[in-house]
Specification:
By secondary structure, this protein is mainly α. It has nine helices and three strands. The radius of gyration is 26 Å and the shape is elongated. The two termini are 36 Å apart. 39% of the residues are buried.
């Protein structure tokens, strides 16, 4: 089984979580002040949204920390799927955010057509622009570490940051529209962004369900693993090759045929070499089981 630097992983996750929590709290405070001083109820609502994002980061932190725990008596194959569970929760939160944005957008359109609106100041618009920049920056910061750790939960949290940036874009468009007298813009932008976030949450759930249901690795990865095994000159045939996803990692089971006249030590050495080659070549693969079968020319004829 491949050895994972769990301490470094936990340290990185903690760092990302702390940065995210601090930024969200500061951003929430800034949005609240901007909404109050700029006469913008949309910005005040966005401030509440940013403060609630702290909860999503805590979910990521808990799920990812459990996922890197060692195997124990109750979880012989590790805890990798706990991160997938955290990702499902985050996807549901994203979907809930989309529903709230969609409702707010439709209401904004209706209110604008009725002439029910409050004209905000440029101060609120500046706050929206700052929010967009900060949340997009947090997306790139989080997605960098998500890819580095191959963490689906961090990827979901990164998209949570981007959904906030989209929300602020809608708010900014609405504030600018209100300043210019086109009050319906905010509602239209908000509805479109809500639909985009629904698509993102769906994509996250689709990936996570593959991880939770022992879905096989992609055809491309399967072919690459098959080729790696087949390239070993001592492997006469590949009798069986199976893969399955568990969280963000992949388990491999293979049966290889080797010369039937080899002693058990030499046959084991071939299996060990195949095992090590797969482990060294594919970072996604955590655990490989290689079974050796006897091969003879007579049986192949």
């Amino acid at each position: 089984m491949k050895v994972i630097d769990k301490q470094n992983t936990i340290k990185t996750i903690n760092k990302v979580a702390i940065v995210t929590i601090v930024v969200n709290l500061l951003l929430a405070l800034g949005k609240f002040l901007a909404g109050f001083l700029g006469n913008s109820t949309a910005m005040i609502s966005d401030a509440v949204h940013s403060s609630s994002d702290v909860a999503s980061t805590i979910i990521v932190l808990i799920g990812a920390r459990i996922a890197v725990k060692n195997e124990d008596k109750d979880h012989n194959y590790g805890h990798d799927r706990f991160e997938s569970i955290a990702s499902i929760i985050l996807a549901m939160m994203l979907f809930a955010t989309a529903l709230m944005l969609g409702y707010a957008g439709v209401k904004s359109i209706i209110d604008a057509t009725k002439g029910e609106f409050v004209k905000p100041s440029y101060f609120a618009l500046i706050a929206a622009i700052v929010s967009i920049a900060v949340k997009e920056g947090m997306y790139w910061y989080t997605i960098y570490y998500a890819k580095r750790l191959d963490s689906q939960a961090l990827k979901a949290d990164a998209w949570h940051h981007r959904s906030d940036a989209f929300s602020s874009i809608a708010g900014g468009v609405g504030i600018l529209g209100a300043i210019l007298g086109v009050y319906v813009l905010e509602g239209i932008a908000t509805v479109l962004i809500a639909l985009l976030i629904v698509k993102v949450s769906y994509d996250i759930v689709k990936v996570v369900l593959r991880q939770l249901t022992d879905h096989a690795a992609s055809d491309e990865l399967y072919s690459q693993i098959y080729k790696t095994i087949n390239d070993d000159e001592d492997v006469k045939n590949i009798d069986l090759l199976k893969t399955r996803m568990s969280g963000s990692i992949i388990y491999v089971e293979a049966e290889i045929a080797v010369d039937a006249t080899l002693n058990i030590v030499d046959a084991h050495a071939i299996a060990q070499r195949v095992h090590d080659n797969i482990e060294a070549t594919f970072k996604e693969v955590r655990h490989i089981v290689i079974h050796v079968n006897p091969y003879s020319e007579k049986e192949s004829d």
